[in-house]
User: Fold this.
Amino acid sequence: MNSAEAKDLRAAALRVALRARILDAARRIVTRDGFEALSMRKLAEAIGYSPASLYLHFESRDEIARALGREGFAQLLAQLEPLGAIDDPRERLHALAHAYVAFGCAHQQAYRLMYREPEEGGRAGAHGATRATVATVTPAEHELPCEEAARMADLFADALEALAATGNWRHGARGDSALLARALWAMLHGVVALSQLGPGFAHEASLTLIVDAALDGWLGASAAKNGDAAAQHNAPPPPARTAKKTPDCPS
Amino acid sequence: MNSAEAKDLRAAALRVALRARILDAARRIVTRDGFEALSMRKLAEAIGYSPASLYLHFESRDEIARALGREGFAQLLAQLEPLGAIDDPRERLHALAHAYVAFGCAHQQAYRLMYREPEEGGRAGAHGATRATVATVTPAEHELPCEEAARMADLFADALEALAATGNWRHGARGDSALLARALWAMLHGVVALSQLGPGFAHEASLTLIVDAALDGWLGASAAKNGDAAAQHNAPPPPARTAKKTPDCPS
DNA sequence: GTCTATATACTGATAGAC
DNA sequence: GTCTATCAGTATATAGAC
Assistant:
């Protein structure tokens, strides 16, 4: 029946719209007051509904947090993947690495949500529970959304392989580009995560310099440091190793 | 007065003993059921006191968590610092790195507490508060206990400087050993943290191989891989690059 | 189907009696 | 110092109005 179908469509549209509204409000609260401040009550109040209504659209607070985390991953990947098109592998790796850290610093709360450990096994009651309203059947067994994680690792691995293919790298194609890509990812995550814990990690050093040191150590202290690698002619003295092409981060 | 002094001493001893008992119970709960399961009520019950009594010895649940975190740092440093005595710098770095990851994998909950972000500004009520009972004046402004963090960074930095001093390293003493030490620390932390989030990071690869790839990239795919670096004569084919001198980790 | 209102079973933390 | 009683907050479950 035509009118019935139309009604279904409209209802579905309303559902996704409301879901989006909930996520919007949640994102606002989290980026403003931190993840800890995200309570179902405040969230419900922010969108003008009762707390119980949220559970018609999300299985739990944790699912909302996970949705925001996946959003963060998508956002980060959206910033990184265009850089994957940079031809020169060394330049590409530098761009990817610094963009990664810049994102983590610029979107602290979103970043935390991406890598936050899920609240384990249902805390409160949850004895009976006939919860089938929300179709989210994701068993949520492992965190780090698989697809996004793979794309992230591949971005780095591809660049490393491209570098190895140039022959202009002592490392050669020894088949460990997948491993080194993971190490690179881990290093970048560590830099962002540790720097967010206070000044104890980076002290006065800038995160940019730490990342540069790591990259130089891996790729060889090389050219491709200043975007246009071809313009390597005797320019005025390089700005004393302080040329940051990425906005520096707090701490 | 003599008896008064003696009484004070005894009271003080009781205080520290009780503090230790609280921490012991907290450690047991956390390592068994995770940090989320650590509630003041359960903790109080575990030591046979009322919840309110805990607040006579610790300012808050957060302070207990922080104390456990510092404990974890001390434990990790106690395992790492003896390795700082290894003469060969490359071997020393390998030993430090793998011991770090092994610790993180073996003591997951303790490790999380070490790098946990503090629960920001008092969540609940906390309106009045005349809290002076506990002498802990630590303003808790920055996490990552400064002293421990510095010792950790120095362990790595010293080894890198020792390596640079041998001249047997393309990197030379360019003054960035402090920076590379931070990058190394970040990489190790990233490996532990990401691996704890599920199989999405390391996939089927072992963490040991990832760390080896990173170290080889920084230090040069070199000797010192098998404890005795002098025994580099043509040994039977190296065990297909799977020789793990550190017990492998979950995921 | 969707939402409100209410109930349960927790949480960290505090005031005040003893 | 230690307790009881309580506050104000939390996530979540369920009953029932519309």
Chain A touches chain B through 52 residues (CB under 8 Å). Residues 39-41, 51-52, 55, 60-61, 122-131 of chain A lie near DNA strand D (CB under 10 Å from a C1'). The domain at 62-118+139-224 of chain A is CATH 1.10.357.10 (Tetracycline Repressor; domain 2). DSSP finds nine helices and no strands in chain A.
